[in-house]
Polysaccharide lyase 8 family protein
Amino acid sequence: MAVFIHKDRANKKMQKRESVLLVENTCSRVFVEGTGVNDSIGIIFLNPTEIYLKKELRKGDWSDIGTSSGAAQRNFITGYVEKASALQLQYVIVFGCNHSEFDLVKQSDYKIFARNSSMHVIQHTVKNISYHAANIFNLSENQSVVINGFKMHSNSSVLIKTGENVQISLSDPTQKQTAVSFTYKNKNQTVNVTNAEGASFVFEYSHEESQWIWCVVGIVIGVIFVIGVVSFIIFKRKKVTVKSKNIKIKNGVKVGTEMFI
């Protein structure tokens, strides 16, 4: 197992504190290379973060955690952060990639969409597809939050994908609720999560409705434009005849001329 540290400042050095490796507050990326094909994990810190890495040898017997038996020992690396609030610690975990693939992941592709006492949302954009990954919490019965057109009414974990179609995947991470609900395009959707054990539920929507609306708007604008052009041409070609007559008051004095078409 190997750990690769990407630092923002080259002049900062890692310090060792007993068996703990201290990476000072310039760390932006960490890649932990596993022993298997898909065992590696990459972590991107959206803000430079001070982290600690601890390598330790753990020993035990398989009978402690399962039905099989036999002594086993492995080296483990534990990473942790000290004295960081939930609002300060912002990170993205990338699974199933090797070191070179992880280097291609751009930190600029990830943005903080929302960060408050009700939800944490990260936006990830790849070409013409955007993802919104959210954890929603602390919502009271009558509260709701809006994420990219979806009005969420329940505490939940949500992933919204917007591309050719719109897809939402949501679950109840607490596994204590009976239902989670949301509203999209003025339509309410309630999901029964009783005994779901944290399973995700996926819903997909097309853009056809909004495309039809813009199509109708375009047709109306086009018709108005054509009517305006035709009216202008007719008005320009129309021959206007102006007639006039003198106006006299009763005493015979001419006071002006009345003109009419």
